[in-house]
Amino acid sequence: MTKVLPDEHGGGFSTRAIHAGQRPDPTSGAIMPPIFQTSTYAQEALGVNTGYEYARGKNPTRECLERNVAALEGAQHGFAFSSGMGCVDSIMKLFKAGDHVVVGANVYGGTYRLFDKILQNFGMRFSWVDTRDPQRIADAMQSNTVAVMLETPTNPLMQLTDIAAAAQIAKRHGALTVVDNTFATAFFQNPLQLGADIVWHSSTKYLNGHSDVIGGVAVCNDDELARRLQFNLNSAGAVPGPMDSWLTLRGTKTFALRMRQHDANGRAIAQWLAGRVGETEVFYPGLASHPQHELAKRQMRGFGGMVSVETGSKANANTVVTRLKVFTLAESLGGVESLVCQPAGMTHASVEPARRLEIGITDGLLRFSCGVEDVEDLLADLEQAFRGL
Ligand SMILES: *Cc1c(COP(=O)(O)O)cnc(C)c1O
């Protein structure tokens, strides 16, 4: 846990992305934060130390990252983890057997797997709800509900949840609102400002942005919640190494630049796909035809680079992915390079086929992570890949 310093909330987004959490190293003047590659710290006398005792609990490079991301989300406290899943696992350890959690039916496949295949065995209970309709969240609340867990937009169908409405319902029941903000990112959406209690990210994706680190971050405002999260972080120990923390900090410096380009490319590609296969087959909150476009405009400041498209069949999907040259067939998203994946067989393979179909993830669905290459090259690549389909 690292508390943001008062002056770190100042300035615009890009200024914070570059400076928050970092200042020249006092011993050398090094402009960039050193990589504190150490597991422990010398102590002066019994009970006398610098505040750093053992690096599972605290590492100065990690603290720079924690302060940086907290400032980007407008939060008081930041926490860095070894992965997005390590992060949500430590968040879930705020709860206990018998507790009930309302979860979006369409959350990340790994989140579903953690909750359904592991945490359920420890006596936690989950209701999987289509959170697009706040009334369904209200209907699912029970006397033992401790949290409402949302992801908006969802992966890969880009369905939105009204964060402010969901948080109001949760608050009425004394439950926490927890939002996975990996897709929208801190650049386009800040759930804490809409009433959420904890926001988390797979920093593997847009925050780091270069497809070379696995990581997770969480932020919150409440001091007591922060103390409990820090306790879990240190007790469960899913912490990132200093080198990964440093690489992620390098990534966040260009965060604003990258997100603007992801957004511009995402919009152009969604438009092109809508013209090519029809608006109803393209899933992108920035399209006026998206059923929740108004909500997207209200709670997001942009729409990002994630676009999904229904190609009609697994054979069509395979033709497209094998023809694409600039887009690489791979899992993951949010890097500078463009990727394409087939959620049914890749990111969501751990979800049972019947459940996949129920939530709309067909074998013909493709998900594009539009990178920051020249958009003309991306469009030309799509043009040749969709030819004749
Ligand atoms: C990738 C991802 C995760 C999991 O994060 P890891 O860093 O891979 O552990 C969680 N949520 C979303 C939306 C993701 O895209």
Brief characterization of the structure:
This protein has 389 residues and is an alpha/beta fold. It is built from 14 helices and 13 strands. It has helices spanning 13-19, 60-72, 84-92, 109-118, 134-140, 163-172, 185-188, 223-236, 242-253, 255-277, 293-299, 314-323, 353-359, 375-386, and strands spanning 2-3, 77-81, 100-104, 125-129, 145-151, 176-180, 198-202, 216-220, 282-283, 306-310, 328-329, 339-341, 365-369.
Characterise the protein shown here.
With 389 residues, the chain is α/β, with parallel strands linked by helices. The chain has 2 domains: 2-252, Type I PLP-dependent aspartate aminotransferase-like (Major domain) (Aspartate Aminotransferase, domain 2), CATH 3.40.640.10; 255-386, Aspartate Aminotransferase, domain 1, CATH 3.90.1150.10. It contains 14 helices and 13 strands. The protein has helices at residues 13-19, 60-72, 84-92, 109-118, 134-140, 163-172, 185-188, 223-236, 242-253, 255-277, 293-299, 314-323, 353-359, 375-386; strands at residues 2-3, 77-81, 100-104, 125-129, 145-151, 176-180, 198-202, 216-220, 282-283, 306-310, 328-329, 339-341, 365-369. The strands form 2 sheets. Strands 1-2-8-7-6-5-3-4 form an 8-stranded mixed sheet, sandwiched between helices. A 5-stranded mixed sheet has the order 9-10-13-12-11. Helix 1 packs antiparallel against helix 2 (60-72) and helix 10 packs parallel to helix 14. The model has no long low-confidence stretch (mean pLDDT 96). Pyridoxal-5'-phosphate binds next to helix 3 and helix 4.
